[in-house]
Design brief:
It comes from Roseovarius litorisediminis. Helices cover about 50% and strands about 5% of the residues. By secondary structure, the chain is mainly α.
């Protein structure tokens, strides 16, 4: 007759050949990472420091973008001037009593999402 190594197979006692091997995890990849929201990704990208060509100094990307927009507006670029005016209006810098900081942040996020949707839509048309 054949001998069984583990005759007790059932609830909470799986067959030996299907059990996890010693030293091996039952979940090797682990728990999936939490997905980041748009605000977190945007802050991480805009806070990254970049080197400026002329000066050789480093500044956050958000500052460099605003400086470049300022330069373009001062050179007479009408689109840059309109965008700068829109950013100032929506951020509430011109009238600090217009919006609370949280409300201004939410308005800016909505505006950025809308601009992103327009860009995606225009890329899909080509």
């Amino acid at each position: 007759m054949t001998e069984r190594k583990n005759p007790d197979v059932g609830y909470m006692n799986p067959p030996e050949h299907t059990r996890f091997k010693k030293g091996k995890s039952g979940n090797p990849r682990g728990r999936p990472r939490k997905r980041e929201d748009l605000n977190t990704v945007l802050n991480r990208v805009l806070n990254r420091k970049i080197r400026i060509k002329d000066d050789g100094r480093k500044m956050p990307l958000r500052d460099a973008l605003i400086w470049k927009l300022r330069e373009l507006a001062l050179q007479g670029d009408k689109q840059a001037l309109a965008l700068q005016r829109r950013i100032i209006d929506e951020s509430g810098i011109a009238d600090p009593n217009a919006y609370s900081p949280e409300e201004a942040k939410q308005r800016m996020i909505r505006a950025l999402v809308a601009m992103g949707a327009k860009v995606v839509k225009s890329k899909g048309d080509t």
